[in-house]
Each structure stands twice: as C-alpha cells, then as structure tokens.
C-alpha cells in the first residue's frame, strides 16, 4: 500500500495552512472519519482524501518555495482506555534498508522532538505524532504544523537542497 504518491499527485492536493475552503470528501473514501473533516474545516485547511480515507494536506513552508505533505489518519488506535489518532509527514524515501547513519540520525532526532517520533513506514522515514482521538482543532493544527516543519527540515538535512522537494 503506497500512502505517498508521486509529487505530481501531491500537488493536486495543494493546501495552504490558512486556506479558506475545504474540498468535500468523495464517495470513494468510505473509511474517512467525518470528525477529522469537521476539525480541518473549522481551521480552514484544504485537504484531499486518499484511497484509505486518510486526509492528505500539502502545506507551504514559510520563507521558501517548498511544500510538505502531511496525513491525518482516519483510524483511531486504542489500548485500554487510550484512544489516539496519528498525524504523519514523510521526510525520506529509501531503497531497501536505511543506511546506519540515517537510522541513527532519525533515532537521535526523535529524542530531540517535542512531539512524535520517526518511524519507518515501508520505504519511507515518517514523522508520526500520536494525539488523543478527541483532540481539539487547535491541537490538531499545532500537530500538523509541527509535523510539516520537522519533516521538511529532516528532508532537507537528509536529501540536501540540491535533491529538490519530494514531499
């Protein structure tokens, strides 16, 4: 399952953090959590639903011409009485195993983060923030912004400016 389509498809979902309109969910996204749509609509974020019913946003990075892909996952994970929702933002696409230096850098970066942790999702290094499933719109917005900024910074660090802006 490829959660991160090529950059051309990403740009279709171009979103501004303070955009005025949201895209209505389509019929193919049957698993989308309407609570997420309501939160994103209330903070005026544009989004697109992916094939899994997750919310895909593309945020413009301040003071640059870069963008960053962020997903707000529809599924809610549970353990006992704890219910969490995930916000994901990719920073690297790998080929096979990550080199030890990259894996160690991601592990070190995780210890420095205020929110979230770096995880491997298939061939991708992804910043994953786990929020209470009933988080407010403002908490979700803070997590989205944090994920986008941290993942874009890591993408630049690991790939270099000359590699372009994949996510």
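Q: What amino acid sequence fits the structure above?
A:
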């Amino acid at each position: 399952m490829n959660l991160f389509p090529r950059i051309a498809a990403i740009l279709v979902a171009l979103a501004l953090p303070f955009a005025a309109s949201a895209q209505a969910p389509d019929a193919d996204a049957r698993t989308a959590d309407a609570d997420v749509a309501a939160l994103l609509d209330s903070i005026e974020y544009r989004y697109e639903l992916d094939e899994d019913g997750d919310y895909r946003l593309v945020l413009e990075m301040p003071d640059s011409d870069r963008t960053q892909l962020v997903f707000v996952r529809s599924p809610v994970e549970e353990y006992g009485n704890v219910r969490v929702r995930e916000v994901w933002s990719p920073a690297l696409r790998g080929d096979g195993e990550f080199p030890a230096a990259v894996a160690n850098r991601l592990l070190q970066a995780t210890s420095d983060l205020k929110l979230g942790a770096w995880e491997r999702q298939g061939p991708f290094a992804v910043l994953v923030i786990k929020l209470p499933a009933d988080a407010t719109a403002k908490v979700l917005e803070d997590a989205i912004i944090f994920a986008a900024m941290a993942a874009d910074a890591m993408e630049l660090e690991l790939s270099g400016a000359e590699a372009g802006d994949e996510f």
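Q: And what stands out in the fold?
A: The radius of gyration is 15 Å.
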